[in-house]
Amino acid sequence: MKAEQDSKAEKAPWFSESLARGLLVIQAFDASGPNLRATDIAKRSGLSRAATRRFLLTLQALGYIGADDDRYYLQPKVLDLGFAFVSSMQIDRLVQPLLNELSTITSESCSFAVLDNDQALFVARASGPKILQMAVGIGGRVPAHTTSLGHALLSALPHDQFEQYMQSRKGLIDPPALTKLRASIEKGRAHGWVEVKGLLHTAITGVAAPIRNRSGELIGAINVANYGSATTKSMRAHVEPLLDVRSRIEKSLQAAGHILPTAAGRRSA
Amino acid sequence: MKAEQDSKAEKAPWFSESLARGLLVIQAFDASGPNLRATDIAKRSGLSRAATRRFLLTLQALGYIGADDDRYYLQPKVLDLGFAFVSSMQIDRLVQPLLNELSTITSESCSFAVLDNDQALFVARASGPKILQMAVGIGGRVPAHTTSLGHALLSALPHDQFEQYMQSRKGLIDPPALTKLRASIEKGRAHGWVEVKGLLHTAITGVAAPIRNRSGELIGAINVANYGSATTKSMRAHVEPLLDVRSRIEKSLQAAGHILPTAAGRRSA
DNA sequence: ATTATTTGTGCGATTATCGCACAATGACAC
DNA sequence: GTGTCATTGTGCGATAATCGCACAAATAAT
Fold first, then answer.
1. pLDDT value at position A233?
2. Does one domain contain both B247 and B223?
3. What's the pLDDT tens digit per position in B26-50?
4. How far is the CA of B18 from the C1' of D13 (A)?
5. Number of compact structural domains in chain B
6. How far apart are CA A121 and CA A115, in angstroms?
């Protein structure tokens, strides 16, 4: 039904077409393969070949794109853009050390993720000493309802946003699973943490807790995950360090002036 | 002496100012903290406040930036841009599994990195079972001369580019270290792999090998690293699996049509 | 209350960006 | 070898996108 973006849509005087188009070009590379020709990219991005070429040249001049003869490929520099996010959140400085600590205490893999629409997006991880490793790496995404991290994230959402999410999942998740999901989230809201067992894979068990800012809004979530034969009991033992590290991360982020410094400061009467 | 970008520099008819400026805005967030106000960003990016605002609004409309009252912050979606690189190289699908395998065989941490100017940029990693972990995570950078990965990368560079690198390091690295570096790289060129001990930290030892495309050009490098008391001998035992995995990664990338599919196809006479 | 900053926005001026059109190049078939 | 087809590089005039100033409103600091 997406009625927006129609043919003659008002045009906003502040919208920078060129920027939007240029970003389209970067994303045209996505899974499409390592090196593309100008025409391919034009097709993928829906821009004219001439425009595509101009953007490619520009990006090349800026060092984001390399060209070999007439094939184009992304340069590692584009990672700077993605990691502008990571460094803007100061993940490496504020979150990673505490995550490492948690991993050492629990001898398990610990991750930090944020919510991106209906997905949990892995931003940082401290791998545990166990052999089995999570297949999805940093920057990877997983449907929120399939992991403890996702449940923790959803449990910290405002009610209306959560209901909106649940609504959007209808038809995509079978009803019994949906019911279970809601139960899990409600338990999470009550306890401040969640436990999820055998959702993404039968052998995976995880405990997770949301990270909030000073005004209680969701920032992300951390978890402790076991990919083997952890008992519920053994996982429960990880909850205390989990919550401890959680609040230390929250303190740390707040001290760094993270998202909404005062948060009280809305327009008053 | 950067004589370029001078006041009235010819102006290129194909360069998209708007794209370049918009990207500047994203990067203005970098380490500057999680949420900035329009004026800050204008200052940091060197653009006029009006222009800055237009780009912020545009990026917000595209979902890359969030706004709260009048603070702006990056949304996780910007990671899509960075990971356009990772997915364009199909790291997760082609490299990560083999990296995991190498880590399992050696019981050590294994990483994949690419060369970005004078730095090794970590793109993927399989953490080993040991407690000690590398402090610098995915997306992180380290001066090339300080790690086995960096040495491997440098050893696969064309001679002129390598010499250019060495030239640029003069004055930044003390002469004896530079001499050692050159010796290490030459050994690397001869053997096809390098061993580096105690450079970034006295306790770190690593063996690494470059990854090349079909035409022999550098793509990246992988390594096996030990953060404890590994002997030279024990590390040597890792060389065989390292080289084995290296060539399997190369095959895998080539099969996926990686960088320069035929590579013979230059302009002939 | 008064000043100093900041934000939001309208506007006319400018120039950056558009996409067509053509020549040149290489791919491929026959 | 020659003829087709697809793709690239590039000029150009037309147009619309982008510029930054300037002013009002709002907020924070003195």
1. 86
2. yes
3. 998 876 677 788 888 998 888 999 9
4. 22
5. 2
6. 6
